[in-house]
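User: My advisor, Dr. K., asked me to get a structural model of this assembly before our group meeting. I'm new to this, so sorry if the format is off. These are the inputs:
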Amino acid sequence: GAGVSQSPSNKVTEKGKDVELRCDPISGHTALYWYRQSLGQGLEFLIYFQGNSAPDKSGLPSDRFSAERTGGSVSTLTIQRTQQEDSAVYLCASSLTRGVSYEQYFGPGTRLTVT
Amino acid sequence: AQTVTQSQPEMSVQEAETVTLSCTYDTSESDYYLFWYKQPPSRQMILVIRQEAYKQQNATENRFSVNFQKAAKSFSLKISDSQLGDAAMYFCAYNSGYALNFGKGTSLLVTP
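Assistant: The format is fine. Below is the predicted structure of the whole assembly, which you can bring to the meeting.
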């Protein structure tokens, strides 16, 4: 079956603009995760969804970052008023459900460049 | 907070040889999972192998095996009979709830 897909693959935006990053999880997976991979910080957890609810938003770096998930499927990560330090690869993952034993399957990521 | 440390930023191995990547972690939890992920230039993270903390037996997946030392909080990855396709970034990760905590990664170069 299809894996996790993310769009766009690459995004270049000007400082101060808003961007939306999309993630399509594997069909039937109820848990969805967003991570950020940057040169300075490595891989860091941002937020996760169980169904449409986000029990843990503690990893979001600032209030410019928000995420939603609709219909228990597609998720959108929105960054408002982008800054240069937001430049990174944003990775999405999904798993059958929440829990340490369930494998997280990753998408190819969106590379965001803020100029 | 849990931390994961990979002390080798880069490693090199000749094709067909064996290489070991190191990982240590810090946690006060007793129930957790450890993982090794591979990230090729395509950026897609691929699960290589995982270990359940309560299992004493080291996990093995074909040419990949781990040396899990729970008391020492060490979780190294051994790649046997290295192949050119093994060249990638390798990340060690820890999970005790839902979020993966990753190390900084080790870049593995495989030479012919």
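One thing worth pointing out at the meeting: DSSP finds no helices and eleven strands in chain A.

User: Perfect, thanks a lot.
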